[in-house]
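Long-time lurker, first post. I've been practising inverse folding by hand and with some scripts of my own, and I keep getting stuck on stretches where the structure tokens seem ambiguous. Below is the full token string for one chain I'm working on. Before anyone asks, I'm not after the true native sequence, just a reasonable design that respects the backbone. If someone could post their per-position residues I'd love to compare against what I wrote down in my notebook.
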């Protein structure tokens, strides 16, 4: 184990401007250096230096498209690291004093993206429904299984069971939600659910935020699938 490398990664993530840039990418998008400079409240030159360090460390990757350069998180593992740090930060903040939550925080707690899957009360409700119906099983904090029941449970949504993919990414796994302190669904199934809900017009990305807005059509579809009691906890809390 290279302790110097661990310390280097921690130092890179721990700088406030770089932290803000990384969190801006937690919805799975790729952003330009200018957009990330705005997220970090730094100049373009400073942002460029920060981004170079993050790319060099393997936390970000850079994609070129014409004259533009876009940056995105290097992997789901990086997103998981950041989510874990957010959980710790919220626990630390909760202990000495209650957090003052504004309207934007309320939207993020209701539904948001966690890299490429759904988090917040909606994400937790989806996980609870899948677990209750026996469609998935969480083995531990790192792994999970999609069961034979999944096809029947996902069919009302118009979704099929995720096919085999890269060995590094499990079919599903629990991802502890920093705001709800209960797991939502990550892995290939979590990503499929997020894409399907957005493509179906049930969820709409909020510009400049990780929040996901539930559309009227989505409220009906998700209520019918989750059940009224579970949906009320999502919509009315």
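-- Answer (accepted) --
I ran through it position by position. Result:
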């Amino acid at each position: 184990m290279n302790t110097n490398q661990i310390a280097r990664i921690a130092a890179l993530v721990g700088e406030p401007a770089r932290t803000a840039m990384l969190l801006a990418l937690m919805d799975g998008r790729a952003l330009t250096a200018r957009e990330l400079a705005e997220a970090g409240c730094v100049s373009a030159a400073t942002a460029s230096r920060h981004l170079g360090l993050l790319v060099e460390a393997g936390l970000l990757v850079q994609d070129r498209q014409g004259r533009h350069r876009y940056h995105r998180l290097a992997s789901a593992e990086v997103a998981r690291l950041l989510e874990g740090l957010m959980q710790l930060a919220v626990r630390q903040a909760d202990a000495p004093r209650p957090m003052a939550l504004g309207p934007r925080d309320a939207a993020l707690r209701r539904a948001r993206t966690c890299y490429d899957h759904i988090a917040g009360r909606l994400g937790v409700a989806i996980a609870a429904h899948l677990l209750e119906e026996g469609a998935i099983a969480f083995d531990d904090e790192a792994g999970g299984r999609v069961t034979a029941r999944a096809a029947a449970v996902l069919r009302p949504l118009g979704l099929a069971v995720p096919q085999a993919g890269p060995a590094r990414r499990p079919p599903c796994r629990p991802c502890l939600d920093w705001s709800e302190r209960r797991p939502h669904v990550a892995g290939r199934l979590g990503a499929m659910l997020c894409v399907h809900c957005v493509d179906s017009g049930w969820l709409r990305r909020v510009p400049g935020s990780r929040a996901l807005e539930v559309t009227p059509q989505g409220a009906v579809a998700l209520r019918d699938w989750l059940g009224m009691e579970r949906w009320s906890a999502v919509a009315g809390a």
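A couple of notes from the structure itself: The chain has two domains: 3-74, 101-236. The radius of gyration is 18 Å. Happy to go over any region you disagree with.
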